[in-house]
């Protein structure tokens, strides 16, 4: 197959390929960018593989950065652009099921491609647009199949995270995992326990935020990967409740985790521990906790403007979307209008400060200041007083 019109990102990088070839070496576009272009998807990163060794690349180009030179990767700077150039390599010895014990630089493109995870990612394109396909990746793209390069079990023993990548690609591309590859995932799922949760979370979140997330999640559960993730052991039936949601995407990571907390019936303390086990950021953890709390309030129909405000107005749209997912019915539009009319987003927006309270009440700093500020904040949120200095001063004096 020949790509008649290289995408703009490839064309911009052509001078890099040509310069490497002029020095007597081979160079190709490889990996996900090739796959995505053939599928008609937008390209995110342009990866280049070459027969030139790192030191040879550094001799060819004046401006380089040793990005991952021990694994053969050098970043080449050209104008305002940068390109990662990786030497063809073979790998061996994967005692931690993640990183190779030994990396050997080679001159053969075929040897480099055979170490890659899936056939659809083992494609290369030369400067003329000719596609090099050693493992029938083009056929698998056409059939919408995710198939391991060579023996699937070997690929997963080399890097157990590839099993998560399989279900992630499944969700992103709406592909099916080929039978032998799926069986190898099921057989080797316990190896996932050896992978850092941060790496697993990255793939899991990408899967859950994909358009076809149910496709990936279904095999994530079916093939046993869920059993080796925090909080998911023996929870297949509960997680499968998410598969009943139709034609809906999660707006963000917080929505996905909140939905999981909901189907697992986690209380606040349990959900907090769950999120810590997944090592999400503090910002994500706080937003997810407040979203799930808000979802539970909506479910019980036990909420008012004050508790919505305290749980974060910024979490409202996310919670409404989740309520629709789980068929929790109430007048979303009316509630949204009321919340939009709240004059402040936080106590920092009040037009009267703690110092003002001290002066108005002629008191020294102490518990009364916090109590007074909280009273005014709630009164503003509930629309009982306007957020301007004179009205707040009058309210403060009238409620002592």
How would you explain this protein's 3D organization?
The protein has 400 residues and is α+β, with helices and mostly antiparallel strands. It folds into four domains: 1-142, Beta Polymerase, domain 2 (2-Layer Sandwich), CATH 3.30.460; 148-243, Hydrophobic Seed Protein (Orthogonal Bundle); 245-341, Methane Monooxygenase Hydroxylase, Chain G, domain 1; 352-397, Serum Albumin, Chain A, Domain 1. Helix content is 49%, strand content 11%. The chain contains 20 helices and eleven strands. The strands form three sheets. The chain has a seven-stranded mixed beta sheet. A two-stranded antiparallel ribbon has the order 6-7. Helix 13 (268-277) packs antiparallel against helix 14 (282-300) and helix 14 packs across helix 16. The longest helix has 19 residues, at 282-300. The chain is elongated and about 85 Å long. The model has no long low-confidence stretch (mean pLDDT 93).
């Amino acid at each position: 197959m020949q790509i008649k019109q290289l995408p703009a990102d490839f064309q911009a990088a052509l001078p890099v390929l040509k310069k490497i070839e002029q020095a007597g070496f081979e160079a190709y576009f490889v990996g996900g960018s090739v796959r995505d272009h053939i599928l008609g998807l937008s390209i995110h990163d342009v990866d280049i593989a070459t027969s030139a060794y790192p030191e040879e690349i550094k001799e060819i180009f004046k401006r380089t950065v040793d990005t991952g030179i021990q694994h053969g990767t050098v970043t080449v700077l050209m104008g305002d652009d940068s390109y990662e150039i990786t030497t063809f390599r073979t790998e061996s010895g994967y005692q931690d099921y993640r990183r190779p014990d030994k990396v050997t630089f080679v001159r053969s493109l075929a040897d480099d491609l055979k170490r890659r995870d899936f056939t659809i990612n083992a494609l290369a394109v030369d400067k003329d647009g000719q596609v090099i396909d050693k493992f029938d990746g083009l056929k698998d793209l056409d059939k919408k199949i995710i198939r391991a390069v060579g023996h699937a079990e070997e690929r997963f023993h080399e890097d157990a995270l590839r099993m998560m990548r399989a279900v992630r690609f499944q969700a992103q591309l709406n592909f099916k995992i080929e039978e032998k590859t799926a069986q190898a995932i099921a057989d080797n799922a316990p190896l996932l326990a050896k992978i850092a949760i941060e790496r697993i979370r990255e793939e899991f979140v990408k899967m859950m935020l994909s358009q076809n997330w149910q496709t990936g999640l279904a095999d994530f559960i079916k093939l046993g990967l869920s059993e080796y993730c925090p909080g998911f052991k023996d929870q297949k039936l509960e997680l499968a409740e998410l598969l009943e949601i139709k034609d809906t995407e999660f707006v963000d990571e917080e929505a996905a985790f909140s939905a999981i907390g909901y189907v697992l019936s986690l209380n606040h303390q349990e959900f907090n521990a769950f999120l810590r086990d997944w090592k999400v950021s503090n910002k994500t953890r706080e937003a997810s906790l407040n979203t799930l709390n808000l979802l539970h309030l909506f479910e019980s129909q036990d909420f008012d403007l004050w508790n919505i405000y305290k749980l974060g107005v910024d979490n409202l749209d996310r919670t409404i979307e989740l309520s629709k997912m789980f068929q929790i019915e109430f007048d979303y539009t009316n509630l949204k209008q009321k919340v939009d009319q709240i004059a402040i987003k936080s106590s920092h927006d009040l037009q009267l400060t703690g110092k003002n309270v001290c002066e108005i009440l002629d008191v020294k700093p102490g518990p009364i200041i916090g109590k007074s500020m909280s009273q005014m904040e709630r009164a503003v949120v509930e629309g009982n007083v306007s957020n301007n200095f004179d009205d707040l001063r009058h309210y403060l004096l009238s409620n002592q």
